[in-house]
Amino acid sequence: MTSIKLLGPPDYSADEQAALIDFVLALRKSHVQEFLRDAELSGYSGTKEDLRARIQEALDEGEITYPQLVDFLDSVVPWGKQHVFLYRGPQTDIQAWKDPDYVHDLLKRHRIGKLFNAKLPLIHPDKLTLSSVAHADGRLRITAVQMREYRERVPEHDEEKEINGERIFLKAYKDHWTRTLAGFEWDLNANVAMLQITQLQEDGDYEDLAEEFSRLVKAWLDIKQFGAVDLRPVIPKLHELEKNGQAEARSHGIDYRTLLGRRISARSPNPRASVHGEPHIDDAMENVRKNSVGHLGNFYWLAGKKPGPGANPLSGDVHLMIVGANSRVNFPTPNAEDVVRYVLHRIRAHC
Questions:
Q1: Residue ranges making up the domain that contains 300
Q2: Which of 88, 277, 306, 343 has the fewest CB within 10 Å, making it most exposed?
């Protein structure tokens, strides 16, 4: 078995070390604080710039290492802000894929055996690049990484000047690097799959990126054999359950599209309130639901109330958007792995 070994300084360049800290600070503040707390470091309160200074100090003093930061990133990022495409498994015999040796040999035949169970690299070019193929716990997970640069406003460094009698205003920006991860996971026991794409800092086309990922692996795994799950029926199903008092999710906004292409939508007054609640609007939306298809659903999946195996594990409501037009699920805020898996499992159940 061959794996990529990620080394710490001095093998990381100064730019790579700075980029790694950028990646960490791009995460939710509470995640960064949890990492520092688990590392038994004090001084993990304050602004993100305070946290940046504390991380750099801990690295300089040897209290934490760069490989620790990489491991932390790889455990959190795949379950952060993301868009997810769901698939059914191929209808062919998949028994061979359950054997890790078969997968490793397949990769070696295509001259990418070094990626088998490899750690994700820290730095990659600005082109989506296949980076790891992991086989564990009955799941095959294929990950590609792309470096992207984005700019962040830093208004505290804005300047005002006078040139030739005219007032000139200079707005300051700071360049940052972020890693975009595209991860295709195939559950070999249930024969279902998903493609997760971390949320892009700038506007981006997730369908194009999904197609680009498919081309990367086509020589040895044809994703076209996997049937895309149509998520449009989930939107009216969740709407119906909520109407009948059996809600799994609270609707903040629902958009329907008629067969002739017209769009009808309803919005609740705030995220804590449901679209339901005014009888004349409820009746109108019920008629729309029965004669249209789901286009977009803005929901809050409800926290669990009952313990026990298979029970809802959510400790708080989870915000998600079902993009019926493109059949993908958007989690606009970071979540834990078990939360994402549970919600996606329930969405599949309503397809």
A1: 234-349
A2: 306
